[in-house]
Amino acid sequence: VTAPAPMPHAMSPGAILQLIRAGHAVTRSALIETTGLSRSTILQRLGVLLASGLVVEGAGGRSPNGGRPPTMLTFNEDAGVVLAADVGARHARVAVCDLGGRALAEEEQPIVIGDGPDAVLDWLLGTFDRLLVQAGRPRADVLSVGVGLPGPVDFATGRPINPPIMPGWDGYPVADVLAEHYDRPAVVDNDVNIMAVGEHRVHLAGLEHIVFVKVATGIGAGVITNGRVYRGTHGAAGDIGHIRSRADSDVLCTCGNRGCVGALASGSAVARQLAADGLDVSSAVDVVALVSQAEPRAIARVRDAGRLLGEALASVVSVLAPTAIVVGGEMAEAREPLLAGIRETIYQRSLPLATRELAITTSRLGRRAGLVGAATVAIEHALSPGRVDALVAARMSTAP
Ligand SMILES: [Zn+2]
To answer: Sign (positive/negative) of CA torsion 128, 130, 131, 133?
Structure first.
């Protein structure tokens, strides 16, 4: 997080870039028509965007009246890079991405989040710098940084707040450390929110309301309404793992209550149940492996977990009426038994109007959802009109 971007002029270069990037107006005449600006103003704004490398002129399009084909304007996805990281409790996936979200260099490494922010961020900055070299891009090309963390984050300041599995991280200025290192803005958010954004922008951009449910060691959700992350007070929205799914359960949750869906249906909960059944299982990954080997006890336990999760999600459906529920996280790789259980109880417990168009699927981004989401939030931040105006001004002033 750095100083707020200057307010964009209504039709500043940054605003013009948005029209081009979204495909709303990709020729000079379309820009004049769409914006109502004069030809000379459009040419001036475009001149700045072309000189700064953010827009390139492409092959001619089709002329409406058979004349000379108009020059097509394209957003140059190579005009900079963003740094993206999905930092989990035990591993992190890190990448340098172009402005279209494609990874130019990427790697996954084991980490220990409990080593604390100094050690983990040191490692992260070192990895970013190394991947920049690997991608052949100078540090000056970095436009922004996006990072997902496995706990609640105060989005405005980019600091974790009371993260249960991240000792030493409470209130640590993660975004400030990243922003200072690269002298660029940094966006830090809870990993589930970031996964929700990634899945939404890449595969579900046409839908206004989706809920992304991460089922891994624990259970959490990222909520997107009207295309934006719904955060709630203190960013606490979406913490569905503590919805009570069994009033009669005596299983104690980390929060101190009994019968929370996270304590009964998460990957670690199912692993515990299967271990009690006498199977050699200790994690969500082991559970998924047993399901893929068609172990009947594992399939039954996973389907039961899906049913419990479906009960909690039925409440979510009643409140939010999303168009899609996307299940991600390690347990999503168990696929059919989990989805079957979830669907069974959601459809049973929700009103037909709320589920008429509801799709319940697994994440198509899979294990890369968090990384893609981190790159997406970084790109969206870097290319907001105010940031682009500041960037073109800086590039113009240093141009030879
Ligand atoms: Zn709980």
So the answer is: positive
